[in-house]
Amino acid sequence: xxxxxxxxxxxxxxxxxxxxxxxxxxxxxxxxxxxxxxxxxxxxxxxxxxxxxxxxxxxxxxxxxxxxxxxxxxxxxxxxxxxxxxxxxxxxxxxxxxxxxxxxxxxxxxxxxxxxxxxxxxxxxxxxxxxxxxxxxxxxxxxxxxxxxxxxxxxxxxxxxxx
Length: 163
Ligand code: 4NP
Hints:
Blueprint lengths: L1 E7 L5 H13 L8 E7 L11 H9 L14 H5 L2 E4 L2 H14 L6 E3 L20 H26 L6
Parallel strand pairs: 1-2, 1-3, 3-4
Helix pairs in contact: 1-5, 2-5
The structure holds 4-nitrophenyl phosphate (4NP).
4-nitrophenyl phosphate (4NP) binds next to loops.
């Protein structure tokens, strides 16, 4: 089983959208039972909360089912997940800080847009203080980046010949 964790700051905008869209994409694959995903935030700002209303609206508009409650990155995540995918450099630094504190190294730590072809900017922008159009932009970035991530996972893991 390959376990993927998407990480942002609040876990109410970018990472729950990434998780939901990733699961949606994987659900069409024959190897869907070999991959699981979750999301979390590096902050404790929105623990237990539903995603932001604008994120929920964005998922719905794009035909994606999203069901998540905010949770914070925890030391056990370094042990339990094979891939940690951060939305921006600040998330990445927060993840590294926790990893040093708890003395547990993440197995594979990446920035989401590493997987987007021809990304014009390395980060998934934080849409929290913007308008609805910012969420659609995030969705489009995630859509392209996740296709790249899925190709990477397929090439790395073969999934026992299933594709
Ligand atoms: P996210 O967006 O990290 O994509 O979930 C944010 C959500 C909440 C806050 C910041 C960013 N906040 O400051 O509460």
